[in-house]
């Protein structure tokens, strides 16, 4: 059992490495192919300025995200999520919910498998919905951009984390109190923290909660 | 070839890349299903995982589609389709495209007509998100090994460690829901200048509460009626009801 367990995880890592690096090369195919098809080169000044504006911040976020999300997603889930994106607003809540329903621990092999299945299904469904949407873009655009639906989509994150939050907070009330207070204070008191900053605050929340958890665990409070 | 943001060639190129990405998901799904069978995870659990994950995904996926549509104004359909199907998220892609276009004196409100501008935006978007894609294959195994070591040393702490990570993430999003509540105490001039109402900052708070209350009611209902399927679909139902509640709340508070 133990040996088989290792071999499954090892093969996930091996496949993850091959797929991951292949896809890394593949995403550069698009801009390079565009240059060849339209026989043009990038505007170097625009490229440089654009990269200066976004790359330092997004690379720093990416680095922190890898260390924050990989332990939560499991191996298979991580290899898939970092390719298909939308981790905090879709893939991770989806996997958490699936593990909760299946009643498996994230650290067990069952957890690893349920998380992988959940994220794979979620990625496939997302891709298919976008393909269908693009095929039907002409009739769909006025519907999706109607005032009522825009208002509803704007509130996707509060609706998502209201439902997910109540499940996890009610199961770990003691552990949840301090991080929730910290985040409330930060988001309310610091005007610079807005919707665009929530991705950066996730690692802050995670690290703070881990420290609090360690102290409470050592003191025998949890 | 004549340039057009919606050129057939671009669609074909993106379709190939999206198919490969889809292939990866299908491959890992097949692998996990095979392993699930080997270690005896019951068919009903697998079925539940698949149906609940698929149902839950619908609303967020449609919101990603909305992102593709909004970016398609300036960049056409193929590039946003690619960027939001592989790694991207709407907030990042909008910023990356906007910053690059602005640096060349253009904006996301108009369609890009120059192929050189188009490839510049495509390069910036791609290089910006590439790091995560590169780091995960290299670091995941090491991070997971560290986790296994930690678990061997102290199983109970490992469980707390996991819960703490999830709660850390959730608390950041709960904090974000309240990020504008200080508007309640702002001067009327400030609010008029920004063009927002005093109470509009409460919309996300009420939406979150609606979703949380729905989740509690569904949980109780499932226990009382002993119908497990209610729990399986509780999160997607709460999500939809929460989002739908935004419509009357906005009419009332905005």
Model description:
The complex is a heterodimer of chains A (222) and B (254). Chain A has 222 residues and is mainly α. In chain A, 85% of the residues lie in helices and 0% in strands. Chain A is built from ten helices and no strands. Chain A has helices at 2-37, 44-73, 75-84, 87-102, 109-135, 137-144, 147-154, 156-171, 173-189, 198-218. Chain A is globular. With 254 residues, chain B is an all-alpha fold. Chain B has two domains: 1-153, no CATH class; 155-254, no CATH class. Chain B contains ten helices and no strands. Chain B has helices at residues 8-38, 43-75, 78-85, 90-103, 115-153, 155-177, 188-194, 203-225, 228-232, 234-253. In chain B, helix 4 runs antiparallel to helix 5 (115-153). Chain B is globular and about 60 Å long. The termini of chain B are far apart. The model of chain B has no long low-confidence stretch (mean pLDDT 93).
DSSP strand count of chain A: 0
Integer average pLDDT of chain A: 92
Q: Please report the distance between the alpha carbons of the first and last residues of chain B.
A: 49 Å
> Which class of secondary structure composition applies to the elements of chain A?
mainly alpha
Which class do the helix and strand fractions of chain B yield? mainly alpha
Q: If helices are DSSP runs of H or I spanning 4 or more residues, what is the number of helices of chain A?
A: 10
TL;DR of this structure?
The complex is a heterodimer of chains A (about 220) and B (about 250). Chain A has helices at about 1-35, 45-75, 75-85, 85-100, 110-135, 135-145, 145-155, 155-170, 175-190, 200-220.
């Amino acid at each position: 059992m133990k040996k088989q367990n290792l071999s499954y995880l090892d093969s996930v890592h091996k496949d993850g490495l091959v797929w991951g690096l292949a896809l890394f090369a593949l995403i550069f195919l698009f801009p390079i192919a565009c240059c060849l098809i339209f026989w043009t080169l990038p505007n170097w000044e625009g490229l440089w300025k654009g990269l200066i504006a976004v790359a330092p911040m997004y690379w720093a976020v990416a680095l922190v995200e890898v260390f924050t999300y990989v332990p939560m997603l499991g191996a298979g889930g991580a290899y898939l999520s970092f390719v298909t994106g939308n981790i905090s607003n879709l893939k991770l809540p989806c996997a958490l919910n699936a593990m909760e329903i299946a009643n498996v621990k994230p650290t067990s092999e069952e957890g690893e498998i349920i998380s992988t299945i959940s994220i794979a299904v979620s990625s496939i469904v997302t891709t298919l919905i976008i393909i269908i949407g693009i095929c039907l873009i002409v009739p769909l655009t006025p519907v999706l951009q109607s005032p009522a639906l825009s208002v509803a989509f704007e509130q996707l994150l509060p609706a998502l984390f209201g439902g997910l939050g109540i499940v996890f907070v009610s199961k770990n009330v003691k552990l949840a109190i301090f991080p929730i207070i910290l985040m409330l204070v930060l988001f309310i008191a610091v005007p610079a923290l807005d919707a665009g900053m929530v991705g950066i605050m996730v690692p802050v929340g995670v690290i703070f909660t881990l420290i609090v958890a360690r102290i409470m665990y050592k003191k025998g409070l949890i | 070839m004549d340039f057009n943001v919606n050129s057939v060639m671009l669609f074909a190129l993106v379709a190939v890349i999206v198919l490969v990405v889809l292939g990866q998901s299908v491959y890992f799904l097949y692998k996990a299903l095979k392993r699930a069978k080997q270690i005896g995870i019951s068919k009903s659990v697998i079925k539940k995982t698949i149906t609940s994950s698929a149902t839950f995904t619908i609303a967020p996926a449609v919101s990603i589609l909305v992102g593709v549509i909004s970016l398609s104004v300036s960049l056409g359909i193929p590039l946003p389709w690619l960027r939001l199907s592989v790694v991207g998220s709407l907030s990042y892609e909008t910023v990356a495209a906007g910053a690059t276009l602005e640096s060349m004196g253009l904006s996301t409100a108009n369609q890009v007509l120059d192929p050189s501008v188009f490839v510049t935006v495509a390069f910036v978007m791609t290089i910006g998100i590439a790091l995560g894609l590169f780091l995960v294959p290299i670091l995941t195994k090491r991070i997971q090994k560290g986790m296994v070591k930690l678990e061997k040393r102290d199983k109970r702490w490992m469980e707390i460690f996991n819960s703490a990570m999830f709660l850390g993430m959730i608390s950041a999003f709960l904090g974000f829901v309240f990020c504008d509540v200080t508007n309640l105490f702002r001067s009327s001039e400030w609010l008029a200048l920004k063009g927002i109402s005093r109470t509009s900052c409460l919309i996300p708070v009420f939406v979150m509460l609606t979703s949380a209350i729905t989740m509690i009611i569904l949980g109780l209902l499932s226990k009382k009626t002993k119908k497990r399927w209610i729990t399986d679909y509780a999160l997607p139902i709460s999500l939809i009801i929460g989002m739908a509640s935004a419509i009357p709340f906005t009419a009332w508070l905005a």
